[in-house]
Amino acid sequence: MNRAFSRKKDKTWMHTPEALSKHYIPYNAKFLGSTEVEQPKGTEVVRDAVRKLKFARHIKKSEGQKTPKVELQISIYGVKILDPKTKEVQHNCQLHRISFCADDKTDKRIFTFICKDSESNKHLCYVFDSEKCAEEITLTIGQAFDLAYRKFLESGGKDVETRKQIAGLQKRIQELETENTELKNKVQDLENQLRITQVHAPPASCVTPKSPSTDIFDMVPFSPISPQSSTPTRNGTQPPPVPSRSAEIKRDLFGAEPFDPFSCGAGDFPPDIQSKLDEMQEGFKMGLTLEGTVFCLDPLDSRC
Asked: What are the pLDDT digits (tens) for 229-267?
């Protein structure tokens, strides 16, 4: 299997697969911020972004503001940026959205990565100042991407067609249930019309028994209403009306409940499941480019 990222051959992974798949690797760093970039990859792209954020950071420093500290949690599920004290998640960058990751070979503190924002779909470049472990963090992100891509191929990637069929089947079931509900409403309307007809029918005492209406064969037409239904009871009250079927709204015309093959319910299958799978496929297909490049920036990091 071809790797979905590029890295130098003399580099080896820093951690065991279990550490990234079952847990996460934490790092402490200073967060210079993020800025929008036009391209998902490229050394020149991140160089301009780093220069821009460093300039903005020095402006804030002159105003008395300090560079905020953050904790990075790297795993196969993404790169989380948290407040080191409250553990509040500030950013959650999924790995299939990260397309470029680089560290500065002239300064072991600076590293950056480009991630596609989940809401705006814009490419954002995140820049950090670490404690001289920028290369290690870059390789850790690369290893997490590699493991996540393998897991996607072994599990989620193979289940794409199955999930498509499930989503299609679920949609068809919803359509059938809608049709079933419409049929129930029509039956209910017919029953209501039938009861109205019974109420407005003339009393039996007003009908001359010797001259009933007949058809062309001199036969009395068949009436679906039982003769006992129009006869008063002993206490002078009418028989109870036909019960409504509104209580059976959860059953179909044959008295059976609507078919549902998923015992877990429809809530476990979001309507945009296919778009999410396509997005993951597209992201992993683009791959992650790891580069150890020279940013050639002015030496301002130690004073941030």
From this structure: 444 545 555 555 555 544 444 554 445 555 443 343 434
Helix, strand, or coil (residue 226): coil
Distance CA 246, CA 295 (A): 72
User: What pLDDT digit, counting tens, does each position of 269-287 carry?
Assistant: 454 566 677 777 777 777 7
Please give the Cα distance from 168 to 229 (Å, whole number). 49
111 in Cβ contact with 20 (< 8 Å): no
For the chain, the helix, strand and coil percentages under 3-state DSSP, each to the nearest 5: 40, 20, 40
Place of tokens 């299939």: 96
Instruction: State the pLDDT confidence band at 300, using cuts at 50, 70 and 90.
Output: very low
- With a cut of 90, say whether residue 177 has pLDDT above it: no
Stated as kind and residue range, the H or E segment containing 124 is: strand 123-130
Q: Are 105 and 120 in contact (CB under 8 A)?
A: no
Beta-bridge partner residues of 111: 103, 128
164 vs 73: CA distance, rounded Å: 32
Query: Are the beta carbons of 49 and 125 closer than 8 angstroms?
Result: yes
pTM over 0.85: no
- Rounded Cα distance, 211 and 214, in Å: 9
Long-range contacts of 281-286 (CB under 8 A, 24+ apart): 281/157, 281/160, 282/96, 283/94, 283/95, 283/96, 283/97, 283/99, 283/116, 284/4, 284/96, 284/148, 284/149, 284/152, 285/4, 286/40, 286/99
Q: Which of 6, 142, 156, 160 is nearest to 79 (CA)?
A: 142
